[in-house]
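Entry 14. Ran structure prediction on the chain below.
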Amino acid sequence: MSIDPELLAILVCPETKQPLSVADGALLESINAAVAAGNLQTRGGEGVTEGIAEGLLREDGQVLYPIRQGIPIMLIDESVEVDGL
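Output, structure tokens:
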């Protein structure tokens, strides 16, 4: 499942207003490896226990907003820091 290009064109990070892009497979593999190892938390402090199949990456490459069942979760507390993964 992929996000509608028209929707992607209007979505921005709710925190910094930076544009977002669809995360690539390599980044998602790194994120899911961290999830499997129990080493990933949301920015709200909750442990991530389920893999992330799709996500939107902030332009600076530091934060990912997950997409669940085709819906972008644009909540700062639900995002994950990916800088350094």
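The CA atoms of residues 43 and 79 lie 6 Å apart. Will compare against last week's run tomorrow.
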